[in-house]
Amino acid sequence: MTDQVVELLVIGGGPAGLSAVRAYREAGGLGRVVLVAADPDSPHERPPLSKDFLRGEQAEGDFGLLDEGELARLEVTWARDRVVSVDVEARRVSTREGADFAYRKCIFATGANPADLPVPGGEDSSLLRLRTLEDGRRLRQAVAGAKTVAVIGSGFIGCEAASSLRRLGVEVVQVTNEYAPQENRLGDEAAARIARWLTEDGVHLVTGVTVTAIERDAQGVTVQLAGREPVRADEVLLAVGVRPASDLAAEAGLRLHEGRILVDAQMRTSADGVLAAGDVVHAFNTAAGRGISVEHWFDAETMGKIAGRSAAGVEGAEWSSPPGFWSQIGDRWLKYAAWGDGYVEALYEEGEGDAFTVWYQDENGTCVGVLTYKADANYDKAFSLLG
Ligand SMILES: Cc1cc2nc3c(=O)[nH]c(=O)nc-3n(C[C@H](O)[C@H](O)[C@H](O)COP(=O)(O)OP(=O)(O)OC[C@H]3O[C@@H](n4cnc5c(N)ncnc54)[C@H](O)[C@@H]3O)c2cc1C
User: In DSSP terms, which residues pair with 144 in a beta bridge?
Assistant: First the structure.
């Protein structure tokens, strides 16, 4: 067992962890920096896993996150290892491989993992899920030998993957408890558009249904549905949301909010010297005036950057931007920004050709979100309205 003192120890090699170390150095943070990441692969983008990579249009090496020589330039030690315990009183971290670090500042950027479905068979590890590059490879391999794939879930990842899988020539049945894909989050009219796109792409939608069990046998998988005929497929992709990777933080005694690490706008947790950023946090946003949980790439980067600056001692670095992301269903790009706690009215506006915008408003008529398709000017305008 080694015993090493580091100035900054970052747990997690996704966009939050990586932007934290970059920002720490940019802000003049000194001393030894160690980033411990459990991924067996080099850091990579996740969005292509349900899009270009899944469709076979992008190779593995094309979406790495690190520039060549960057770690050396930043003087960051990258450890492929898993942190197994953090003692926030003693300021010590232990890893699975037996390393033991004493830190002055620590940043949790542990992200999230795909959620299971709480039904019999819904935890089966042979079901396909999408988070890591390894998951992406496994999905592609499984699909290569499959005739039919059932996608369970109609969030952005489920819709993107369903459309991408069709491009590979496989039959796709998408099963969801929503009456149309993303209806709960985006409203009827946007959901109807997305349903039309998926149908055009050849996805067979089975909507408004409850999955009661998932059963694997030697020939494939049966998705049992309440009061409806079961769906039979060679493989099942489970895309039913994520579970924040906050167990380590909970064991360390950090304060949580609904399973996420509670942080202020500077990404400080309840423990001295400990910060957190990305999908794993519930963070205070100064423009919203409240805590927010988001699972988006750019926001993870933004929060990581703030955590890195805070760790370097920069005052006044605070999270204030509206959260949002872009999603690609087939060749269609949707852009979404919203505070994320619902809306009272969704105003649907047709644009030129097949462009559209949905403006989401609260009970006072204030804009709380926007969804655009081929309407970038509205997307940009919404950012100033939300900010
Ligand atoms: C298929 C897919 C498509 C997506 N598409 C989009 C998109 O189009 N647009 C968008 O905005 N967002 C998209 N997202 C979401 C986006 O990828 C996440 O919001 C983002 O990755 C969150 O970054 P993070 O750094 O918080 O966590 P992660 O990227 O999950 O990184 C977490 C890191 O922590 C490490 N880790 C966890 N526990 C430990 C431990 N104990 N010890 C050491 N390391 C640990 C992990 O190995 C990993 O390196 C997509 C996600 C997926 C899976």
Answer: none
